[in-house]
C-alpha cells in the first residue's frame, strides 16, 4: 500500500469512527419529533441531492416533506424553513434561540469570525457592533448627510454609460452596478472612490472583494465535516486568509491616513462614517477597539456590494425581459420627477411603481437565497423539534415563490405590490429578502436608497435595448447559486438616448 492510499484509508477510518461516535452521542439526545426529510445516504447524508441550485432543490423537497424539513449535510443537521408562517413562528417566538449562525469555515480565516458582526454570537460584542451600525453608519441622519456623495457617484455612472450610448456599445450591467455600489459604499463610509477603475488601490480592492465572495460561496467540505476543518482540504480558508489580510492592511492604511488628519481631497463631508467610528474612541460614547474597525468595514463591504449590485442587475434584466413594465416605470418617473431633472433619493417615496419593481425583484431573486442561523438549544417549532446546534435555514427564495400565497408566483408582476402594504422590512414574512428579527440586515436603509437611486437613474436617463440577436423573450434568465444568487449569464444591454 503506497503512502497516499494509506492516508486515504486512515482518513476514511477516522471519518467512520467520528460518524459512529456522533450518531451514538446524538441518539441519546435526539428528540423524537424531528421534522420530516429525505432519507440521508451514509456519510454524505443529503449533500448529493442538493445539486447546483440548493435553494431550488430544497423548494422541491417541500412538496413531499412540507414547510419544515431536516436534511443531513454531511455531518451537519440542517433544518429548512420554507413558508412565511413557519418563518414568522421561528422569528416571533424563538428569535433568540435562532440568533446565532453556523460559521462558514472560510470566515474563520484571520480569526475574522471572532471580530465580525456577521458571525459573532448574539452577545455583548455583537450587540455593541449593531448599536454602532444603527447609530453611526446607517442612521437616517447619517444617510441624509451623505446623499450628496451618492448623487455624485450616480452621476459618474451615468457619464460612463453615456460614453457607451454614444459609441452604441453594450454595458455589462452587473459590472457597472458593482463598481458603482463599491463607490457608493466607500464614499458613504470614508469619502473615497474605491471603485474608480483608474486607481491602483481601487483595482486591488475590487479584486479582493470579488475573491472573498468567490471563496466564501464555494461548497466547502470543512463546513459539512467539521473534523476535516484542520485540514482545510480545498485550501479555501487559506486563500480567504490571504484576501482578509490584504483587505485589513488596506483599511488600516486608510485609517492611519485619517488619524494623521489626511482626508481625501475630494471629500465633501466634514464628518463621515470613518470619522464617526474613530471619534467613538475619543468620545467614549460607545466602545469599539480601533483594531476591530477594519473587521467591521470588511463585513460591510463584503455583505453590501454583491447583494446590492446583483439585485440591480436582476431588476434591469426583468425590465428588459418585460419591456411594457420598463415603459411603465419610465413613464412614472417622467411624470413625477420631470424629463430633465435627475432622480434623487428624496423622490423615492413618490415613485410607487419603481418601489414595486424593486420589491418584485426581491421576491423572485432574493440576493441571499437563505440566511444561515443555528439553534442554541432544542426548540419546539410548530410541534417539531429543531435540535440543538442544527443549522437553520430560511429559504427566502421558496417563500417568495410559494403558490399558497403568491398568485402566478413565477411571473414578474410589480403591480401585485401596488396598493399593498407588504414591505421588505422584516414584518411581512412573505417577503423577507433582508431577513427578520434581531439579526435582520443592518444595511437595509442604505441598500434601499442605493437600489432605487441607481435603477431610477438608469431607466430615466436612457432607453435600453438588448444586443443583436437577443430578444426579450429569448434572453437568459437563469440563476447561479453562490454567496449571492447571481445571474448565470451577465446582463449586457445597449443604452440609447431617450
Ligand atoms: C440588496 C441588498 C442586500 C440584501 C438583500 C441583504 C440581505 C441580508 C440578509 C438576508 C442578511 C441575513 C439576515 C438574517 O440572518 O436574518 C444580511 C445580513 C447582513 N447584511 Fe445585508 N443585505 C443587503 C445589503 C447590505 C448592505 C448594503 C450592507 C452594508 C453596507 C449589509 C450588511 C449586512 C450585515 C453586516 C449583515 C450581518 C448582520 C448580523 O449578523 O447581525 N447588507 N443581509
From TrEMBL:
Family: Belongs to the cytochrome P450 family.
Cofactor(s) in the UniProt record: heme
CDD domains from the UniProt entry: CYP76-like
Residues where heme binds: 441
Signal peptide: 1-26
Name of the protein this chain belongs to: Cytochrome P450 76F84
Any Pfam family the entry gives: p450
Top-rank lineage group of the source organism: Eukaryota
A GO molecular-function annotation: monooxygenase activity
UniProt xrefs under InterPro entries: Cyt_P450, Cyt_P450_CS, Cyt_P450_E_grp-I, Cyt_P450_sf
UniProt keywords, alphabetically: Heme, Iron, Metal-binding, Monooxygenase, Oxidoreductase, Signal
SUPFAM superfamilies: Cytochrome P450 (SSF48264)
Keyword Heme appears in the UniProt entry: yes
Organism: Mollugo verticillata
Oxidoreductase found in the keyword field: yes
Amino acid at each position: 500500500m503506497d503512502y497516499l492510499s494509506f492516508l486515504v484509508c486512515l482518513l476514511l477510518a477516522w471519518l467512520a469512527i467520528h460518524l459512529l461516535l456522533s450518531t451514538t452521542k446524538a441518539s441519546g439526545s435526539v428528540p423524537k419529533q424531528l421534522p420530516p426529510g429525505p432519507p440521508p445516504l451514509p456519510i454524505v447524508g443529503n449533500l448529493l441531492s442538493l445539486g447546483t441550485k440548493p435553494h431550488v432543490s430544497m423548494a422541491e423537497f417541500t412538496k413531499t416533506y412540507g414547510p419544515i424539513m431536516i436534511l443531513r449535510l454531511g455531518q451537519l443537521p440542517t433544518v429548512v424553513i420554507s413558508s412565511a408562517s413557519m418563518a414568522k413562528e421561528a422569528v416571533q417566538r424563538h428569535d433568540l434561540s435562532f440568533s446565532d449562525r453556523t460559521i462558514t469555515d472560510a470566515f474563520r480565516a484571520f480569526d475574522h469570525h471572532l471580530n465580525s458582526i456577521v458571525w459573532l454570537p448574539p452577545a455583548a460584542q455583537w450587540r455593541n457592533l449593531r448599536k454602532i451600525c444603527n447609530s453611526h453608519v446607517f442612521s437616517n441622519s447619517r444617510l441624509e448627510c451623505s446623499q450628496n456623495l451618492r448623487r455624485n457617484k450616480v452621476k459618474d455612472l451615468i457619464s460612463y454609460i453615456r460614453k457607451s450610448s454614444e459609441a452604441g456599445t453594450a454595458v455589462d450591467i452587473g459590472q457597472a452596478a458593482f463598481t458603482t455600489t463599491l463607490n457608493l459604499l466607500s464614499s458613504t463610509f470614508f469619502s473615497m472612490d474605491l471603485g474608480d477603475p483608474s486607481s491602483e488601490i481601487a483595482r486591488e480592492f475590487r479584486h479582493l472583494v470579488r475573491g472573498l465572495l468567490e471563496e466564501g460561496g464555494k461548497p466547502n467540505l470543512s463546513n459539512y465535516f467539521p473534523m476535516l476543518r484542520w485540514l482545510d482540504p480545498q485550501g479555501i480558508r487559506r486563500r480567504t486568509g490571504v484576501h482578509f489580510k490584504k483587505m485589513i492592511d488596506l483599511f488600516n492604511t486608510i485609517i492611519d491616513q485619517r488619524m494623521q488628519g489626511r482626508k481625501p481631497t475630494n471629500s465633501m463631508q466634514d464628518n463621515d462614517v470613518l470619522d464617526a467610528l474613530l471619534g467613538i474612541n475619543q468620545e467614549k460614547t460607545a466602545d469599539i477597539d480601533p483594531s476591530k474597525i477594519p473587521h467591521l468595514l470588511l463585513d460591510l463591504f463584503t455583505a453590501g456590494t454583491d447583494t446590492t449590485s446583483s439585485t440591480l442587475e436582476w431588476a434591469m434584466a426583468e425590465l428588459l425581459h418585460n419591456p411594457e413594465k420598463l415603459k411603465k416605470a419610465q413613464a412614472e418617473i417622467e411624470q413625477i420627477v420631470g424629463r430633465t431633472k435627475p432622480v434623487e433619493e428624496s423622490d423615492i417615496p413618490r415613485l410607487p411603481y419603481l418601489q414595486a419593481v424593486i420589491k418584485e425583484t426581491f421576491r423572485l431573486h432574493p440576493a441571499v437565497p437563505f440566511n444561515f442561523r443555528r439553534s442554541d438549544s432544542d426548540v419546539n417549532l410548530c410541534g417539531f423539534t429543531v435540535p440543538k446546534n442544527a443549522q437553520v435555514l430560511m429559504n427566502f427564495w421558496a417563500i417568495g415563490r410559494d403558490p399558497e400565497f403568491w398568485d402566478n408566483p413565477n411571473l414578474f408582476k410589480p403591480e401585485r405590490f401596488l396598493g399593498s402594504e407588504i414591505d421588505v422590512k422584516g414584518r411581512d414574512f412573505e417577503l423577507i429578502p433582508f431577513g427578520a428579527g434581531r439579526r435582520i440586515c443592518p444595511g437595509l436603509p442604505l441598500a434601499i436608497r442605493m437600489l432605487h437611486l441607481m435603477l431610477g437613474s438608469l431607466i430615466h436617463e436612457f432607453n435600453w435595448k438588448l444586443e443583436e440577436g437577443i430578444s426579450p423573450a429569448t434572453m437568459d434568465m437563469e440563476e447561479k447559486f453562490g454567496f449571492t444568487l447571481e445571474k448565470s449569464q451577465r446582463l449586457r444591454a445597449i443604452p440609447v438616448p431617450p
